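From: lab user (bench 3)
To: helpdesk
Subject: output format question, protein + adenosine-5'-diphosphate

Hello, I'm new to running complex predictions and I'm not sure whether the block I got back is the full result or only part of it. Here's what I submitted:
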Amino acid sequence: MSVELQKRPESKAETEEQLTDGFHLLIDALKLNGLNTIYGVPGIPITDFGRLAQASGMRVLSFRHEQHAGNAAAIAGYLTKKPGLCLTVSAPGFLNGLTALANATTNCFPMILLSGSSEREIVDLQQGDYEEMDQLAIAKPLCKAAFRVLHAEDIGIAVARAIRAAVSGRPGGVYLDLPAKLFGQVMNATAGAESLVKVIDPAPEQLPSQASVKRALDVIKSAKKPLIILGKGAAYAQADDVVKSFVEKSGIPFLPMSMAKGLLPDMHPQNAGAARSLVLKESDVVIMVGARLNWLLSHGKGKSWGEPGSKKFVQIDIEPREMDSNVEIAAPLVGDIGSCLSELLAGMGDQFPAAPDGWKSAITTKRDANTAKMNQRLGSDTTPMDFHTALGALREIMQQRPDAMLVNEGANTLDFARSIINMSKPRKRLDVGTWGIMGIGMGAAVAAAVETGHPVLAVEGDSAFGFSGMEVETICRYNLPVCIVVFNNNGIYRGTDENENGDGDVAPTVFVKNSRYDKMMEAFGGVGVYATNRDELTQAVNEAMDSGKPTLINAVIDENAGTESGRIGNLNPQSVVKK
Ligand code: ADP
Ligand code: MG
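Helpdesk reply: Thanks, we reran it on our side. This is the complete output you should expect:
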């Protein structure tokens, strides 16, 4: 009898089928592909998924709003070349995350938005389910690819397709629709394990054709005033050594786009950033490396680009359709940055045309004059601080801390910081990107800290900070080494606008005067500092960067400082009709 009793559980285990379910298959599929961090907001129907993912050893970071979780996932994708994961609930949560997914796609950052959704049968008959929405249809036009998974046995393939779509070719955002019922679907564990796919070589090298390399070499060799423009695609590619060799061996001056700053150090002798107007206007051959001729470069034409027809463009991009998007590209090189530049280097041998000394010295002269002018302004020590006083302090700090990550958004705070704060290492600067949007700040800061482990300095306009400000709680909750400096000038652009109708409301661009953003951080146990001058700001930032404690410094900025829309005021129509 007792022998039989002892034997029974064993024999039961032998016959009982081992099962898995949608929850576990999704977790296993992600982990199998090295995706171990999820940024999201829990809720129906993905709450238990988050719990189980965490229990399985994944890092699950919960935010206060999906858009910021999505922005974090996008930045994680940019920094790691693996799709960042964002997890949202259905309908409203999905829509909040969708903004970040669209932004990631626009910026060519790989990310996957995993969203729970309502039951297909009810959604398709529009019978009014909880948070009913045809999410797949809505996501499709806003991202690179969108898939829905209905059966647990398809989860492995779906994750594989999502990863490939996100990182191969031009990277972008992918939507994965996960109806609530999928998670609970049960299947045989062995069959489940066999259904998973480990994606081999998710972003294969893409070699340019030999003919296109020869064509590019011919154009480059003909140059008298060549210029290289480095974009964030080049930073993303992580081909840092090849980029450096190409620039240094060629001796060609380079201009970094904002997130490509630091790919080569900003202090590099060939950096023409401080002579930007001159090089755009006067160059005769422009080599675009992972940068687009969009609004950020005046579409490659118009006054800032000098005489029409005075330039030839060589463009290196992984996306063939980028060529001729705005102007004729004389030599398109379609392929990944590393492969294309390696081919050019090999083809050039030692035959790079020495960019004429006159061209180089004209740039150096202009650059040095502009830099000297700027340095003079940066030494200023006004109270209240203006942008130059505050940013002069932050520039020194960043120079001493080359590994620190910089997040930057705002209008004037963005424009001034971009040109004032030098970067000395690749992929350290995260900002508003291709759309120039506000609200990326705290999502980017969280991802920067989580993915790199380095301290993060977030330089934020007071308006820009407001979009994601509640995430200071997230930063405190995970005790992340993030130091936020809010440039508080009492409003959008400036704090001095007046309401002309006298109804007692303030002007649409004005906030509560003398707000204490530092108290927000204190509310969650972080360090809050109220800084009114350069010394206080310097000391507080250094302390935060040393301690790694979540810190928010309210930097009081003269409310008269700042111009309408910063440097892109030309894009903001102004009425000339007086009524
Ligand atoms: P920026 O704003 O810095 O000018 P963009 O985002 O406009 O940069 O341009 C980045 C470009 O880089 C995009 O056209 C994208 O297709 C391209 N790109 C992204 N990754 C790679 C890569 N690995 N190799 C080549 N091109 C890439
Ligand atoms: Mg402001």
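A quick orientation on your result: Residues 210-365 form a domain with the Rossmann fold fold (CATH 3.40.50.1220). Let us know if anything else is unclear.
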